[in-house]
């Protein structure tokens, strides 16, 4: 018998221990449902991964959680703040790193980070201290006065990390953290995530294609396919559920997403067969 809770119910954490709570989240583009009544609880002080194949609905889910896309239905609560009723407070405790770095090319790294400090009404001395800490951590200190337009993609991505971390958010939402980073950047981000959680009590919600990243850094994950959560739990729990007790996350992932794809194909075939055989 499976040890998993029913997939329709989010039970990733107790209410008091939940930093991001999502209920019945739904988004459609015309007739196409991109996110189909998703429920999840991100526990405080953990790295929580959203995995899924291309087009599964990961980015749409994360963008709704950060308030960048309006949902068609459902409720999102961040650190006790309802995103629909209290968007400013909910966003103030959230840092977001999109999959593609959007930065103001005509600013220097320092100017960009000072601008972000202003958006969060941070005091000047705290901004200066945080800028220094973060540029050093991300190996950008000597580029502090360099124009962003001269930066490589990986440097811009690291600067976006600095910007998101500047105000010390309670929860960091990261869409595909490894895009555009070299192996050194990968290693930095993986150890940074664990440090942020262990030392700064931050919570991290990330989406990734890189299963090795999920395997190394995530405390638990949900797998999304066709806009729905098809599995949730720690890697150990997912292994049990998929019957791959000694498999890698890649094997578990393929098993679960292929199963659901096969189930859907079967459902379509049944409907198609029924319609074909329907005398009316
Ligand atoms: N603005 C939009 N208009 C129409 N369809 C959209 C829009 N944004 C996303 N979609 C569709 O919604 C589905 C989910 O997209 P989403 O970007 O959330 O998936 P994803 O899991 O992040 O995929 P990937 O891993 O490829 O980035 C896809 O089929 C996508 O084509």
UniProtKB/TrEMBL annotation:
PANTHER family: ABC TRANSPORTER ATP-BINDING PROTEIN ALBC-RELATED. The lineage of its organism: Bacteria, Deltaproteobacteria, Bradymonadales, Lujinxingiaceae, Lujinxingia. Coiled coil: none annotated. Residues 20-251 form the ABC transporter domain. InterPro entries: AAA+_ATPase, ABC_transporter-like_ATP-bd, ABC_transporter-like_CS, ABC_Transporter_VariousFunc, P-loop_NTPase. This is ABC transporter. Keywords: ATP-binding, Nucleotide-binding, Transport. It comes from the Bacteria. One of its GO terms (molecular function) is ATP hydrolysis activity.
